[in-house]
Amino acid sequence: MFEEQRNRVLSSLDKAHHAYHKKPAFFSGPSVYFHVRSLRAARAQDLDRFAEYAYAMLSSWGMHQPGSGGPKMKDFDEFYSSLKSVWSEAIPLRQITLSRLRGPDWLSKADWGRLKKVFCGIRCMTTNKSLVANSKVMANLLPNLIPPIDGKYTLRFLYNSKNIPNTKMKEWAKLVDMLKHFFYPIVSSKPFRRKVKKWLIHKKWAGWNTSPLKIVDNLVVGLERLRKASKTE
After folding, report:
1. What tens digit of pLDDT does each residue of 113-127 get?
2. Res. 6: pLDDT tops 90
3. Which of 58, 70, 53 shows the shortest CA–CA distance to 27?
4. Which pLDDT tens digit goes with each residue over 76-103?
5. What are the respective helix, strand and coil percentages of the chain, to the nearest 5?
6. CB within 8 A of 143, min separation 6: which ones?
7. Which residues contact 191 (CB under 8 A, 6 or more apart)?
8. CA quadruple 51, 78, 174, 56: dihedral, nearest 10
């Protein structure tokens, strides 16, 4: 699963990274500010601040659009309550480093169970679709284990479709497939590890190169930029 997509990323690491950072990131200003702040709050294990910054981050990343159309987020109190209910499951998972990931299962059965509880417990959106928003929250809470998933880029790149399953269990199964067969194999590969060491230390990329898994997300966006650019030539 995803062998072709993995090869596309690993064979174009520098090109994809350059394409992502060549122009200002799609999101700037409050988007990068709240992204970085929520990561810091997670490191400090500060639930109150993390909830506030993650909530603001989701809004600035387009997860709540005023008016009659577009996605809508739940009220903050419900979002906060859902985070609080899974906080004790999430914090121990922060101790897992990328060096502990080992295929084919990558994580222990107990750790997969904790991740599932966190994913299923977070309540962000007013609709029954949770994959995109919940993954973005978890990517900032557990950056060593979860990347942000995006319909426009991640799902299109991996599945050639933006369609999201309509139940949380199906969404969780899709996330597990992406982790086991795409994201974790890439961050565990030697070519990626060599590159990521250099990319993470450059301050000019610090706002978005915030973890190896986030960098994989950046590379997917970069490849999509290159694909679109080739069509216009």
Report:
1. 999 999 999 999 998
2. yes
3. 58
4. 999 999 999 999 999 999 999 988 898 8
5. 70, 0, 30
6. 39, 42, 210, 211, 213, 214
7. 10, 13
8. -40
Q: Quick check: 139 and 86 in contact, CB under 8 A?
A: no
Q: What is the pTM of this model?
A: 0.92
Q: Is the pLDDT of residue 25 over 60?
A: no
Q: Distance between CA 113 and CA 96 in Å, rounded?
A: 14
Q: What six digits make up the tokens of 185? A: 């194999």
Encode 12-27: b = buried (16+ Cβ within 10 Å), e = exposed. bbeebbebbbeeeeeb
Rounded CA Rg of the chain: 17
Euclidean distance between CA atoms 233 and 75, whole angstroms:
45
**Number of neighbouring beta carbons within 10 Å of residue 226:** 16
Angle between helices 13-22 and 3-10 (to 10 degrees): 70
The secondary structure of 45-87 as a DSSP string is: T-HHHHHHHHHHHHIIIII---SSSS--BPPHHHHHHHHHHHH
